Amino acid sequence: MPGDGREIGPLGTIARVALGLTAIVVAIAAGGIGWWDWATLNAFVLVGATAARMVVAGFERYAPDAFAARHWICSPPGCSLIALLVGLAYGMSAMTPAADGDVVFGVWLGASSLVAAAAGYGGCEVLAFPNALTGRRDRIGCLLFTPIDAAEARYRGRTARRPALGGE
User: Fold this and answer.
1) Which residues 6+ apart lie within 8 Å of 149 measured at CB?
2) What are the pLDDT digits (tens) for 37-92?
3) Measured between alpha carbons, how far is 145 from 20 in angstroms, rounded to an integer?
4) Which of 94, 114, 106, 125 is nearest to 29 (CA)?
5) Cut 0.90: pTM above it
6) Distance (Å, rounded) from C-alpha 99 to C-alpha 32?
7) CB-hemisphere CA count at 13 Å for 59?
8) Which residues, other chains included, contact 9 with Cβ-Cβ below 8 Å and sequence gap of 6+?
9) Distance CA 113, CA 126 (A)
10) Whether 30 contacts 137, CB under 8 Å
């Protein structure tokens, strides 16, 4: 979408909002959510942002070629970060009276998808909070949204080259 700073189009936005709302509702309906869950969730945003920055920085320094695969279904940085965040969510829920890690991770994933939709961020939703907190636009491949965004970009590219109706 030229000029407005959004990296995603309407379909990518709708997909992120749908996933975000679904993840939040399912996580809360499955395990309920108490005040410890909210506290753990807030801490998880900060810990997750730090972990994301470390993973991205590590791949930038030691394996920069891995970012060339960011348009794959699951790039090495993306898969590494998702695995780390799932482990952190379950670890944090084991160390606190918070509910299961799936509640923390599900609500966080849902909220991240909503942040990505609002910001027009075209990378993996797991970087939406870290990017919002740091003002960066780090990008890694995304299992779900990369194919949607790529197809939508190709479609927008084709329609932008089409001549106007009326013979102008």
Assistant:
1) 7, 8, 9, 12, 122, 142
2) 788 788 888 888 888 888 888 988 998 887 766 555 667 887 888 888 888 878 87
3) 12
4) 106
5) no
6) 8
7) 21
8) 1, 149, 152, 153, 156
9) 8
10) no
What pLDDT, on the 0 to 100 scale, is given for residue 162?
42
- For residue 54, the Cα-to-chain-centroid distance in whole angstroms is 16
Task: Name the one residue in this structure whose structure tokens are 């699951």.
Answer: 74
Each domain of the chain, given as residue ranges in start order, spans 10-153
Closest CA to 80 of 107, 101, 109, 51: 51
Q: Which residue has the tokens 């969510």?
A: 89
- From the number of C-beta atoms within 10 Å of its C-beta (0-12, 13-18, 19+), residue 102 rates as middle
* CA 156 to the chain's CA centroid: 22
**Identity at 63, one-letter amino acid code:** A
